[in-house]
Design a protein that fits this description.
The chain has about 550 residues and is an alpha+beta fold. The chain has two domains: about 45-80 and about 135-155 and about 175-345, Beta-galactosidase, Chain A, domain 5 (Distorted Sandwich); about 355-555, no CATH class. Helix content is about 35%, strand content about 25%. The chain is built from eleven helices and 20 strands. The protein has helices spanning about 1-30, 250-255, 330-335, 350-365, 370-385, 385-410, 415-430, 440-455, 480-495, 505-520, 525-559; strands at about 80-85, 90-95, 100-110, 120, 130-140, 150-155, 155-160, 165-175, 180-185, 190-200, 205-220, 235-240, 245-250, 260-265, 265-270, 275-280, 285-295, 300-305, 310, 315-325. Strand 12 and strand 13 (about 245-250) form a beta hairpin. The longest helix is centred in the last third of the chain and has 34 residues, at about 525-559. The relative contact order is 0.12.
Length: about 550
Amino acid sequence: MLDKMLEYIRIALYTLLVLIGFFFYQAWEKEHTKPETEVTKTVAASRDRFVPTDHVADSAAPEPVATAQSTVPSVATTSGQLVKVTTDVLNVSIDTHGGDIVEVNLLKYPESLGSKAPFQLLTDDGKTRYIAESGLLGKEGPDTVSGQALYTAEQMNYSLQPGENSLVVKLNWKKDGVDVTKTFTFVRDSYEIKTGYEINNQSGKAWDGSFYTQLARKNTPPATHGGFVNLTTYFGAAISTPQKPFEKITFKEMQKQEVSREVKDGWVAMIQHYFVSAWVPPKTAVSNYYSRVTPSGLYTIGMIGSPLHVAPGAKAATEADLYVGPAIADRLEKAAPGLQLTIDYGWFWFISIAIFWMMQKIYDFLGNWGWSIVIVTIIIKLLFYQLSNKSYRSMSAMKRLQPKIESLKERLGDDKQKMTQATLELYRKEKVNPMSGCLPILIQIPVFIALYWVLVESVQLRQAPFILWIHDLSQKDPYYVLPVLMCISMFLQQRLNPPPPDPIQAKVMMAMPLVFALLFANFPAGLMLYWVVNNTLSFLQQWHIMHRVEKEANVKRSK
């Protein structure tokens, strides 16, 4: 009776792994389905924009931007020119209409494996629009609720030259004695763009206004171009407050209720798989967080700063940082406190962080993420060696006791109560703990899930090669070699375990390796690599321990 219960537990654990895998697989399949909409380019002049209401400059507004429920204003579609900026890591386009960043290409990240085209994060494409906007709201401009400023540029092309560590791009606007300079500062090997304004008020009256920053995009998840994209990863907006360092604001939530909060510090962000964009105000700055959804489906998350007052003949300045690039923890943490939390490792985040830390250290030494996975797997096996050792000894002892258990069945027949008591007595006599045989599976589940999230969320593994035919560890094995090896390794390991007493259970357990291989065939090669190495090491360890136990038993019998 007890042995049947143990087999049921073991089957339940394997079933749990199957269900977890099936859940991930469904999400993977869904994400890899290409969108039906055709991507077409549109002219920047037709851009759908939301400009927030300035509660300082617009005295007619009954409420500040964060609480106003008015209809999105109609914005003029003045056509601007594109200023091109190239650094060692970024290729950026800035629209002189509004001074918005309307295109960002990440030069260090190819669009797909083998492609020379860089990955485009921000775009002014009509179907997939995703732009970073900022403005200076004032009753007299440069930006108002009826339209954004049209700036003039000192030049149309900028490039960070060898030996230069920074690059400054300036846009200018003048009206009625008020001179405004909008400045973008780019730094070598950085995805942070410092965006600032200088107001020089040479008019005869005070200038009052507010600085706003926002991210706007369509709800169109990026198509898969070689990276392992999964719907289990987050796609949407997020904000940070001192009370809650990381809070997801889904597009669905933005439709139901607009964000309206006054916050000190923090940031607002748009998150997609592998990449992040975020506006970060100066420290201690108090901002009104807001969100809007336009009739055309443009989702906007942003913040508007405290009122600015510039007396006649005076000057004032304000600024914010824009991070637009890969989700790399060190870079994100440097850009803003808590921004690294946008790398969501799921339930077992603490295990994921430890795994990735080890992988990163090994990669820094070997320069190959595949071997890093192999070595981390070995380290994990060593950490749990003693626990596995006890478990495998117990399983070996149970296998050795199978003839005695069968003898008890023949002697006691259908008396289940006596059979259970006799079996427990036999286990006590032989000092065998049958429950310990389930421990390797229990240990493997959280490690498997944690490593899954590391492989899914870590942009470092995007398009990372291993050896021979494995050119991208974040994608499936193109020839399914690793899933086949995983199936074989699971089968060999099962052969070492005591067979289930029930024939049906035995068939189910025998089918498990094939079920796993088919279910995980399209999972990332990095995950399959982990499983193959883990199963192989487990098989070798179990075989070694069983061999030792058998020798020890023979020595005892000879005495």
